[in-house]
């Protein structure tokens, strides 16, 4: 056979995947966000009247509007929950960096065989259901839970952490730690040790070598880890729902309320679409970071 | 078949008057005193004593695993000796970490900081020394000019060729003006032609800066071309130290003779030794060997004669009678352009290498395989080795 | 073009059906029920199958919101679903459930007319639904903990969970409210002397003001966690559903004699709620659904169910058959005097519902 190998089908696969599992649902949600609520099955209008043919489709599009989006800007609740979600995600990402970096750094300094075991230990929690792990935190943090039992053993005052923002941060940091550690570990482990010798040779103490060489070189991992955690944390629902208080304001909960309590599918969709739009910026940043990492890795 | 080496002795000859090691009143810059370094059960450096002098270009030469790199890393401070001491400018280096030692190293991998541009790499050590900004800029410009990388100051290492990277690494190590520059296999990653050019650049640079260079290499040609003195290492020991020509022409052991250049080693029994000449009886040469040798070797003892291929003449017609004359037939030859190396099988069955300069373009009687031939060498062309 | 679109639509429906096939599978002999969790004696289902040969697939949910979202989307594959009273009118309007063919239900005469009267506002004439259980909303509390903080106070009024001065004393031991806006507003409106089915936004705003004053003392809004929290002694008072609060009480008793709980329907009156059986419009096996409904209308069967759930049923003939400790508990079967103070709520119009929910979010988050 002459010419280029036939990779047509294989090359289509990712697009097919994205089309079926991202683009199609996205368009459905986008369409929904332009609809209005209605007491019907399903609870929104308009719906395409296929029997009316082309006119039905036209009528359908004519009935779509941006009213729901306008409402999002009018009610401070949505802005507040956006800001609150971004805040939760940003602070948790910061904490994750502070905790995850030393872990990843420490891991990368061990002998190869020990590193494998440590890597396993980081991945191990994934073998248990996410929900069970979050529930376990309820058992730890509740008033009569493990934490307070422990504290009272030492005569320390009890902490009421469950259903507070602190509990949400604990849950977020706990659940996302591997997503921070793994990319950091990947860059730190690859780092050429002779660079540190070179830095020492050129007059750096260990600390100086870390800040002048190790850290700047690990920035792609920092970026990847931060975005990998930040993006899903903005939309996190389970952790604030289970560990947070009723006052914990996050987008995931807002969407839940719109969808279930208000039966307002268009509003829930609009909030979701707006969230996606907000997240496009960090996602694009993440993409660029990845490209950079690949280039630097040449 | 391997090619014959062509040491360029003329370079060293320029500095033939430079011999600080011969002056007992001079204090060496670096002194290794009985230094030993073990890794587990392995003794990488075994009781090494060595002095290197100010402005010297010193080479540590040996096969991989001989301990030469460890010796250098001991000096840089990346390893700590298990026994012995190292002094630099009279000062004991024990307990001083790498960043406190006034030596800089050029790494075999170059170890350029990939996140920094060429100029930032070069400025790295200067910044660390606390040099004022303006001075750093001047020094960087100076260094860029020195290694001819003026236009590439803003490039990142991955945007450079291998040769350019090598020069950045060199400039970075030189920039802080260390007391001594350590070069770990500096040319190993370059292709042959670039390597030869760079060797000369290194010499020129060293002479211009007057800086003390210590180079570690497994390539005997590199050591011969660049160094004032060579220390040949074997299994953690230094077996011989000397000028390139000394090491080449008067190796002190079969190991050194064999490691540096090509050599034909003949084993024989001493039949006479008068303090000027030695004669040997050997199955390889029925008429016997004769060589110049001051030592009065015991008659009957075993000795080896080392003869470089270029010092053996090949004749197609029988040469005149005399010692050091062997008959054989051409078993193989390799044409190298400037030289042709012949492998001659002696009547005793062993093979001998002989090199002949291709002095003219047209050869009246080309030599072919299975041609009968004779080999001879002058008594002063051979070196007598007892170990 | 239209043709192409139609085919696409058909394809989409086909795909959806495929996805939901796991729910809809099974022959004519299978009945799919979707009910609240922990809400039936499993032995009843077994006996039903033994008697009728109809296999029962029983799935559970734990919020009306989740149920309604599923049912309004259609294609659930269920033959019977069990919504609460205030959701039913929406189901009817949306056409999600089918009117009952009463000729297929022989046991309807067993129902208790006094209680059925409460169903009038949300399902007039009980055209669409058959009651399963009913109960009240009230206060579950830890007797010892409350007595310590409010000595000498009788717990018989909403004052205890709505008045800031009372709540301030209870904050440290933990107060839960229901996370169900319609239930909480109904109770609050009644407490404030307003119509619990009010359609006036101002009434709801007044309730919101009251809620906001109490808000700082509320640890959590949750509709089901209070059972566990009360029973463990993690909290000392909660607004909750009668069955849940009584369940917490028996759990605490089973766990040892450490936590002593009680439940009260406050004297100002409270909401009666109903969980009712309805048949979705697209139920695959309505015949089996009718069979099951008729089975559940038998006094001896529904009495067993009440004994198990500790909720009252609406079957007059069954009352005598319910276990005495359930039947004689005024918190389960209210006294005739208490019955007079009870009320029931219906669905709100969508815009009002939205506003009420928005206010409820403000109560919870301050936003």
Corresponding CATH superfamily of the largest domain in chain C: Periplasmic binding protein-like II
Structural class determined from secondary elements of chain A: mainly alpha
Biggest sheet record of chain C: 7 strands, mixed
Greatest interface and its participating residue counts: A-C, 34 and 42 residues
* Secondary-structure element string of chain C: HEHEHEHHEHHHEHHEHEHEEHHHHEH
Q: Which class best fits the helix and strand makeup of chain C? A: alpha/beta
Indicate the overall shape of chain A: globular
Q: So how many helices of chain C?
A: 17
Report the CATH superfamily of the largest domain in chain A.
MetI-like
* Strand count of chain C: 10
Under the CATH scheme, which architecture of the largest domain in chain A would be assigned?
Answer: Orthogonal Bundle
Helix content of chain A: over 70%
Whole-number count of domains of chain C: 2
Beta-strand percentage of chain C? 5-15%
Rounded to the nearest angstrom, the distance between the terminal CA atoms of chain A is 33 Å
Number of helices, counting only DSSP H or I runs of 4 residues or more of chain A: 13
Give the radius of gyration of chain C.
22 Å
List unreliable stretches of 5+ residues of chain C: 1-27
Describe the structure.
Chain A has 298 residues and is an all-alpha fold. Chain A folds into 2 domains: 29-65, no CATH class; 74-296, MetI-like (MetI-like fold). Chain A contains 13 helices and 2 strands. The relative contact order of chain A is 0.12. The model of chain A has no long low-confidence stretch (mean pLDDT 87). Chain B is 24% helix and 33% strand. A 6-stranded mixed β-sheet of chain B has the order 6-7-8-3-9-10, sandwiched between helices. A 5-stranded antiparallel β-sheet of chain B has the order 13-12-11-14-20. Chain B starts with 8 loop residues before the first helix and ends with a strand. Chain C is α/β, with parallel strands linked by helices. Chain C is 46% helix and 14% strand. Chain C contains 17 helices and 10 strands. In chain C, the strands form 2 sheets. In chain C, strands 4, 5, 6, 7, 8, 9 and 10 form a 7-stranded mixed β-sheet that branches. In chain C, strands 2-1-3 form a 3-stranded parallel β-sheet. In chain C, helix 10 runs parallel beside helix 17 (350-365). Chains in contact: A-B, A-C.
């Amino acid at each position: 056979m002459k010419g280029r190998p036939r990779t047509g089908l294989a090359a289509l696969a990712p697009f097919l995947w994205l089309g079926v599992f991202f683009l199609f649902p996205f368009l459905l949600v986008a369409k929904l966000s332009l609809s209005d609520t209605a007491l019907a099955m399903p609870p929104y209008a308009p719906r395409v009247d296929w029997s009316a043919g082309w006119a039905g489709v036209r009528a359908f599009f004519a009935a779509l509007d941006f009213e729901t989006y306008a409402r999002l800007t009018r009610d401070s609740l949505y802005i507040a929950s956006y800001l609150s979600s971004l805040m939760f995600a940003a602070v948790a990402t910061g904490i994750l960096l502070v905790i995850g970096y030393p872990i990843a750094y420490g891991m990368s300094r061990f002998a190869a065989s020990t590193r494998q075991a440590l890597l396993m230990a980081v991945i191990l929690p994934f073998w248990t259901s996410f929900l069970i792990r979050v529930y376990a935190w309820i058992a730890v943090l509740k008033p009569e839970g493990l934490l307070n039992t422990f504290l009272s053993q030492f005569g320390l005052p009890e902490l009421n952490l469950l259903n507070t923002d602190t509990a949400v941060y604990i849950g977020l940091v706990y659940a996302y730690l591997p997503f921070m550690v793994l990319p950091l570990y990947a860059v730190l482990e690859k780092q050429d040790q002779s660079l540190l010798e070179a830095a020492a040779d050129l007059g750096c103490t260990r600390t100086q070598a870390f800040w002048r060489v190790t850290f700047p070189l690990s920035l792609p991992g920092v970026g990847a880890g931060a975005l990998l955690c930040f993006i899903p944390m903005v939309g996190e629902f389970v952790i604030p729902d289970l560990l947070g208080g009723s006052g914990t304001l996050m987008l995931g909960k807002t969407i839940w309320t719109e969808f279930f309590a208000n039966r307002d599918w268009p509003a829930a969709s609009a909030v979701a679409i707006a969230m996606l739009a907000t997240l496009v910026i960090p996602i694009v940043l993440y993409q660029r970071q990845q490209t950079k990492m690949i280039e630097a890795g040449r | 078949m391997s090619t014959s080496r062509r040491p360029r002795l003329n370079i060293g000859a320029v500095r033939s008057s430079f011999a600080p090691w011969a002056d007992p009143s001079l204090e060496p810059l670096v002194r290794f005193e009985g230094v030993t370094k073990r890794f587990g059960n392995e003794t990488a450096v075994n009781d090494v004593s060595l002095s290197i002098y100010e402005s010297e270009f010193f080479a540590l030469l040996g096969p991989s695993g001989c301990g030469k790199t460890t010796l250098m890393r001991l000096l840089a401070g990346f390893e700590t000796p298990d026994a012995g001491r190292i002094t630099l400018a009279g000062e004991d280096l024990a307990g001083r970490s790498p960043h406190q030692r006034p030596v800089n190293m050029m790494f075999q991998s170059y170890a350029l900081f990939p996140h920094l541009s060429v100029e930032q790499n070069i400025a790295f050590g200067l910044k660390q020394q606390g040099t004022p900004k303006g001075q750093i800029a001047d020094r960087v410009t100076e260094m860029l000019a020195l290694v001819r990388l003026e236009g590439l100051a803003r490039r990142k290492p991955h945007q450079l060729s291998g040769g350019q990277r090598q020069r950045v690494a060199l400039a970075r190590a030189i920039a802080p003006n260390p007391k001594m520059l350590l070069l770990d296999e500096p040319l190993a990653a370059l292709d042959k032609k670039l390597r030869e050019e760079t060797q000369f650049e290194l010499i020129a640079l060293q002479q211009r800066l007057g800086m003390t260079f210590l180079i570690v290499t497994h390539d005997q040609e590199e050591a011969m071309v660049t160094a004032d003195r060579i220390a040949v290492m074997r299994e953690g020991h230094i077996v011989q130290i000397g000028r390139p020509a000394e090491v080449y022409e008067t190796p002190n052991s079969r190991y050194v003779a064999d490691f540096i250049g090509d050599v034909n080693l003949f084993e024989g029994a001493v039949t006479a030794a008068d303090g000027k000449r030695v004669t040997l009886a050997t199955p390889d040469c029925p008429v016997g060997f004769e060589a110049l040798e001051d030592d009065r070797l015991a008659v009957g003892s075993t000795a080896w004669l080392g003869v470089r291929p270029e010092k053996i003449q090949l004749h197609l017609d029988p040469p005149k009678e005399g010692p050091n004359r062997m008959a054989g037939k051409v078993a193989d030859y390799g044409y190298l352009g400037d030289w042709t190396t012949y492998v001659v099988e002696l009547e005793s069955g062993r093979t001998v290498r002989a090199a002949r300069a291709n002095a003219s373009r047209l050869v009246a009687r080309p030599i072919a395989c299975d041609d009968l031939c004779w080999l001879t060498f002058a008594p002063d062309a051979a070196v007598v080795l007892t170990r | 073009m239209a043709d192409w679109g139609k085919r696409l639509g058909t394809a989409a429906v086909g795909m959806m059906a495929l996805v939901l096939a796991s729910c809809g599978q099974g022959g004519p002999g299978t009945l799919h029920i979707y009910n609240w969790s922990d809400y039936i004696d499993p032995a009843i289902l077994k006996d039903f199958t033994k008697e009728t040969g109809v296999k029962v697939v029983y799935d559970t949910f734990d919020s009306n919101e989740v149920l309604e979202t599923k049912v309004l989307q259609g294609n659930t594959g269920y033959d019977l679903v069990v919504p609460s009273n205030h959701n039913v009118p929406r189901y009817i309007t949306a056409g999600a459930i089918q009117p009952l063919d009463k000729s297929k239900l022989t046991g309807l005469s067993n129902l208790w007319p006094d209680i059925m009267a409460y169903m009038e506002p949300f399902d007039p004439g009980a055209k669409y639904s058959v009651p399963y259980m009913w109960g009240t909303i009230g206060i579950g509390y830890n007797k010892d903990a409350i007595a310590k903080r409010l000595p000498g106070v009788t717990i018989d009024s909403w004052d205890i969970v709505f008045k800031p001065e009372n709540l301030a004393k209870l904050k440290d031991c933990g107060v839960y409210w229901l996370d169900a806006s319609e239930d909480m507003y109904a109770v609050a409106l009644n407490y404030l002397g307003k119509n619990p089915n009010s359609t006036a936004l101002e009434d709801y705003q007044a309730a919101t003001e009251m809620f906001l004053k109490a808000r700082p003392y509320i640890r959590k809004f949750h509709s089901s966690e209070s059972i566990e929290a009360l029973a463990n002694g993690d909290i000392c008072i909660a607004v909750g559903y009668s069955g849940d609060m009584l369940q917490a009480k028996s759990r605490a008793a089973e766990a040892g004699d450490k936590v002593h709980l009680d439940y009260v329907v406050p004297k100002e009156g409270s909401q009666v709620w109903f969980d009712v059986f309805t048949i979705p419009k697209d139920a695959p096996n309505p015949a089996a659904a009718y069979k099951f409904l008729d089975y559940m209308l038998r006094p001896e069967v529904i009495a067993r169910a009440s004994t198990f759930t500790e909720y009252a049923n609406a079957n007059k003939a069954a009352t005598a058959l319910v276990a005495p400790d359930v039947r004689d508990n005024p918190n389960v079967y209210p006294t005739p005097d208490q019955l007079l103070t009870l009320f029931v709520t219906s669905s709100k119009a969508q815009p009002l519902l939205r506003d009420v929910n928005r206010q409820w979010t403000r109560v919870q988050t301050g936003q």
